[in-house]
Design goal:
Strand order of the largest sheet of chain A: 4-2-5-10
Distance between the termini of chain B: 21 Å
Structural class of chain A: alpha/beta
Number of helices of chain A: 8
Largest interface: A-B, 49 and 47 residues
Shape of chain A: globular
Oligomer: heterodimer
CATH class of chain B: Alpha Beta
Number of domains of chain B: 1
Radius of gyration of chain B: 16 Å
Largest sheet of chain B: 5 strands, mixed, barrel
Radius of gyration of chain A: 19 Å
Shape of chain B: globular
């Protein structure tokens, strides 16, 4: 049994919220530079130049990459030999978000009630996903999720007979419907299988996988590559203004499902695909 | 084609804009997004005065991140325009000339843009740090209680945008995808 103070969780989440909103991970930065070399249209290249310059300014001037600093999604992978001491874990996580968004000059974009819509003024609460895993470590992943792309995400409850072609068609439908609204070039997170909520959870988690890392399942890897190729032939392009780079990656996760179902979730993220992970 | 325009916009300047033009805006523009649109729409329907004159003006669909000490504004990129579609025709009929956002607009908005000789620009979504550099002053002038969604008066210099829907109703998002498929 290992004891972790929840105050340590708060401190880490605070730092991770600020870091995620000012610096992209190495895989996201290099895929953007690569895209600039490959883009076929001049306007597309001009947009990608702006995105590169934007990243540079964000880091140098400590100004968020995007003004939509997102709703904080937090994945907690908790080793089952860990014991927490201090305030309630959920409160500790939200305190970290509150401090990060306040001290980091991040935008407060959360409303307390979805219909009454009064801003909570500190970007809490976060959306928290807990998993119990082997060991005595805690892995925290902070994903500030912007809503331009979140709003274009979809769940499709397909029939088993729809098969792999149905899954591909669903992903392409979501991406083309999203088009310029989702701030392309996008990263496309896909969850296939499980239940209604499980596939949505997998699609979100898929966005945290490095964009240069393909699925370990051969047929899924093939589907990821085929879909990326098809998406980049739609012509939507950077900013939706036409071009050959519409998506940076398609990351697909799968899970066992019911004999009667084939759930598919498509969680779209803009080019500002933010995620920071730490293991304590 | 690169063009330079002054804000507020005059009818002549708008008339010459075409989908695909790269435009640099200098002058005064106003921010308003979801909650401010809802309030202004309610005021218009009740026949009340708006906190800003719409006449000839440009609304930028934007809610910034907070400014650090000594800075003018935080990150300041566009939000998705289609959420404002419901209110847009009414604003254009009351004199609004230009909008800056990102993403597609409804058929109703396109028709209203044509009818009113107006224009819809896109700024690059997710480039809020870069775009903030073209803003030289920012002042909240209404709905302070809305936080980031308050109405701000911005002074901008060479603020970079692209014409997406021009006064003839041409839509760059449709044209660009079609051209890409034909040419590449």
């Amino acid at each position: 049994m290992r004891t972790i103070l929840t105050s340590v969780i708060t401190e880490n989440i605070k730092e991770m919220c600020v870091k995620a909103n000012h610096y992209l991970s190495e895989d996201m930065r290099s895929v953007l530079y690569q895209a600039r070399k490959e883009e076929k249209t001049s306007l597309g290249r001009q947009i990608l130049d702006q995105l590169e310059e934007n990243l540079q300014i964000a880091g140098e001037d400590m100004i968020p990459i995007c003004q939509d600093t997102g709703m904080a999604v937090v994945f907690m992978e908790i080793g089952q030999d860990v014991h927490f001491e201090g305030i309630l874990l959920e409160d500790a996580i939200n305190e970290g978000v509150r401090l990060g968004y306040k001290d980091g000059y991040l935008r407060k974009s959360v409303v307390r009630d979805p219909l009454i819509r009064e801003n909570t003024k500190d970007n809490t609460p976060a959306v928290i996903h807990y998993e119990i895993v082997p060991g005595d470590k805690v892995k925290i992943t902070v994903v500030p999720k912007g809503f331009g792309s979140e709003n274009m995400s979809r769940v499709f409850m397909l029939k088993p007979a729809d098969g792999i072609d149905g899954v591909k068609a669903a992903v392409l439908t979501a991406v083309t419907d999203a088009g310029p609204n989702a701030c392309p070039p996008m990263v496309v997170g896909v969850g296939v299988g499980g239940t209604f909520e499980k596939c949505a959870w997998m699609a979100k988690k898929a966005l945290t996988r490095p964009v240069d890392q393909r699925s370990g399942i051969p047929y899924v890897k093939e589907m990821e590559e085929e879909l990326l190729d098809k998406i980049n032939k739609t012509g939507i392009g950077p900013g939706g203004l036409g071009g050959s780079v519409t998506a940076f990656a398609v990351n697909i996760e799968t899970y066992p499902t019911h004999i009667a179902g084939l759930p598919v979730a498509v969680n779209i993220c803009c080019h500002v695909n933010r995620h920071v992970a730490r293991t304590l | 084609m690169d063009k330079y325009v002054k804000a507020p916009l005059c009818d002549e300047a708008v008339k010459g804009l075409r989908a695909g033009d790269y435009v640099y805006i200098t002058g005064t523009i106003y921010t308003a997004r979801d909650a401010a649109h809802k309030r202004m729409d309610e005021s218009l329907k009740k026949g009340e005065d708006l906190p800003i004159s719409l006449h000839g003006n440009i609304i930028y669909y934007m809610g910034p991140s907070p400014a650090r000490e000594g800075r003018i504004i935080g990150s300041a990129g566009p939000t998705t325009a289609s959420r404002m579609d419901k209110y847009t025709a009414g604003f254009l009929d009351n004199g609004l000339k230009g909008m800056i956002g990102k993403g597609r607009r409804s058929r109703e908005v396109v028709e209203s843009i044509k009818k009113n000789n107006a224009v819809y620009f896109a700024a690059v979504g997710g480039a809020g740090a870069l775009l903030s550099r073209s803003i030289i002053s920012s002042k909240i002038i209404a709905y302070d209680d809305l936080g980031t969604e308050a109405v701000r008066e911005l002074q901008v210099v060479n603020f970079p945008v692209i014409v997406v829907i021009d006064p003839e109703g041409n839509d760059l998002y449709e044209i660009a995808v079609k051209n890409f498929k034909e040419n590449i």
